[in-house]
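Morning run. Coffee first, then this:
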Amino acid sequence: MANAASPSPEADTASVSARNAHLLLRLAALFYDSLLVGALLIIASFAYLPLAGGDAVAPGDWLYRLYLLALAYLFLVGFWARDGRTLGLLAWRLRIVDARGRPPGLARASARFALALLSWLPAGAGYLWSLLDGERRTLHDRWAGTWLVHEPKGRR
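And here it is:
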């Protein structure tokens, strides 16, 4: 599914001067988004309590875990597929694009979500891969056919 070429300069949403984001920018945006997703999951946990009979959720409750994973998926993939960015990415002028420089769409964004989870194993190796990659792409971006580009100032 991955495309070896960088996003084309004539692409709609990726400017000619946009460049692939380095690991520290990725991690900064990930930190911002983790705060947002964490807050969303805390609020969603309160909504789940009636399903748990009003008691604390039992450790190992798979329905609860799937519920939280689905909410994180909807939040992240929804933003990625539509605009190629979450609020954390927006704050750091980052955008996820496909080979044509457009937002990745639902299929690629979904693949990126699943592969990004795997990129943390072992010890974030899929993210650290960007330090060795000539295009600074993580393994999940390479496998999903996406790029995380850093846009110049003035372009939002």
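The chain has a mean pLDDT of 89. Good start to the day.
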